[in-house]
């Protein structure tokens, strides 16, 4: 296989793709209303999911094309059996510089020691409320204390920890400042994310009452000396620092999509669909490729040509959806 230093994935807009996000399952133990309906979604049978062997094989091919960072998501990744073994195998791929995890924290605590031993490079914890009752309303589950225990455990173990809060009109906007205060005494990055329409129904919840501009205005009222930080152009979050606070704050315009110009990510869903953009409907059935008799070299060439189909931004990707013009996927099937 060609050395990763010889080839990089570059799309038609001259963006280098070096970050792979992998959803390892569509299952979740929470029922956050912005992600899926209360009754859940129709989970796929195991045979429809990529096996760990297929995930590692495809990841290795991607790494040979210049992918350096891998993030594991779900659904909730720790629901998948032997998830730690997958992490171990991905960390062992020559050329992988970082492996990160996004989790809701319900099952994570008992694995923190193993994650630390493996050298997991960062953990994003989904947390939309610091109020136990409101947490239950949003997630439809009584797991607040468990998630907060995981947050404390992550920090105690010294993980590079980020908190992801989806800001939702009429649901948790009254907690934006309280969430930001977590960074005052904790070495954590608190990121506020615009709500997106991926809720598993054909009804968009993204009214955009609380877009990135409104979120920043709210933070500036509470923290008048809020200072903007420099960050890598591919970082979807605009970062800010309150002087004297241990951690920092970030705002991700996930619905406004102002960061598309420097996007370096490609996504692999749990069913093996490659997504050039969060908002497209999938551009390649990688599962079919992996289960065919194609060689790694042949798959490499197909991946290179797939990246050449990448749209300029999320608006173009959404506009050019062919099968389902209306976004109706659950975020748990996409992987965020």
TrEMBL record:
Gene3D superfamilies in alphabetical order? Aldolase class I
User: Where's the Radical SAM core domain?
Assistant: 12-233
Which superkingdom heads the taxonomic lineage of this protein's source? Bacteria
Q: Which organism is it from?
A: Reichenbachiella faecimaris
- EC code: 4.1.99.22
Task: Supply the name of the protein.
Answer: GTP 3',8-cyclase
Q: What SUPFAM superfamilies does its record include?
A: Radical SAM enzymes
User: Is this entry keyworded DNA repair?
Assistant: no
Q: State the Gene Ontology BP annotations.
A: Mo-molybdopterin cofactor biosynthetic process
**Keyword annotations from UniProtKB, A to Z:** 4Fe-4S, GTP-binding, Iron, Iron-sulfur, Lyase, Metal-binding, Molybdenum cofactor biosynthesis, Nucleotide-binding, S-adenosyl-L-methionine
Swiss-Prot/TrEMBL cofactor(s): [4Fe-4S] cluster
InterPro entries named in the record:
Aldolase_TIM, Elp3/MiaA/NifB-like_rSAM, MoaA, MoaA-like, MoaA_NifB_PqqE_Fe-S-bd_CS, MoaA_twitch, MoCo_biosynth_MoaA/MoaC, rSAM
Pfam families xrefs: Mob_synth_C, Radical_SAM
Catalysed reaction(s) here are: GTP + AH2 + S-adenosyl-L-methionine = (8S)-3',8-cyclo-7,8-dihydroguanosine 5'-triphosphate + 5'-deoxyadenosine + L-methionine + A + H(+)
**GO MF terms held by the record:** 4 iron, 4 sulfur cluster binding; cyclic pyranopterin monophosphate synthase activity; GTP 3',8'-cyclase activity; GTP binding; metal ion binding
């Amino acid at each position: 296989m060609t050395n990763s230093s010889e080839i990089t994935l570059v799309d038609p807009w001259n963006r280098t793709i070096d970050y792979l996000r992998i959803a390892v399952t569509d299952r979740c133990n929470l029922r956050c209303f912005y992600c899926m309906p209360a009754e859940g979604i129709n989970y796929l049978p195991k045979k429809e999911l990529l096996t760990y062997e297929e995930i590692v094989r495809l990841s290795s091919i991607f790494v040979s094309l210049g992918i350096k960072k891998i993030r594991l998501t779900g659904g909730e990744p720790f629901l998948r059996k032997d998830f730690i073994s997958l992490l171990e195998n991905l960390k062992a791929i020559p050329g992988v510089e970082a492996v990160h995890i996004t989790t809701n924290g319900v099952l994570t605590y008992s694995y923190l020691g193993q994650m630390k031993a493996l050298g997991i490079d960062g953990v994003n914890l989904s947390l939309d409320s610091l109020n136990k009752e409101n947490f239950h309303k949003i997630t439809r589950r009584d797991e607040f204390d468990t998630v907060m225990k995981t947050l404390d455990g992550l920090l105690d173990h010294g993980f590079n920890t980020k908190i992801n809060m989806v800001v939702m009109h009429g649901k948790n906007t009254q907690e934006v400042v309280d969430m930001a205060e977590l960074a005052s005494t904790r070495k954590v990055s608190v990121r506020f994310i615009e709500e997106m329409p991926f809720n598993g129904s054909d009804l968009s919840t993204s009214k955009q009452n609380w877009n990135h501009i409104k979120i920043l205005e709210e933070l500036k009222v509470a923290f008048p000396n809020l200072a903007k930080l420099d960050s890598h152009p591919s970082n979807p979050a605009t970062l800010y620092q309150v002087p004297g606070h241990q951690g920092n704050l970030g705002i991700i315009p996930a619905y406004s999509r102002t960061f598309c110009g420097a996007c370096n990510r490609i996504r692999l869903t749990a069913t093996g669909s490659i997504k050039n953009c969060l908002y497209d409907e999938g551009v390649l059935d990688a599962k079919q490729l992996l289960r065919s008799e194609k060689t790694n070299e042949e798959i490499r060439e197909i991946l290179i040509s797939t990246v050449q189909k990448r749209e300029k931004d999320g608006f173009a990707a959404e506009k050019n959806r062919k099968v389902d013009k209306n976004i109706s996927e659950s975020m748990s099937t996409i992987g965020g």
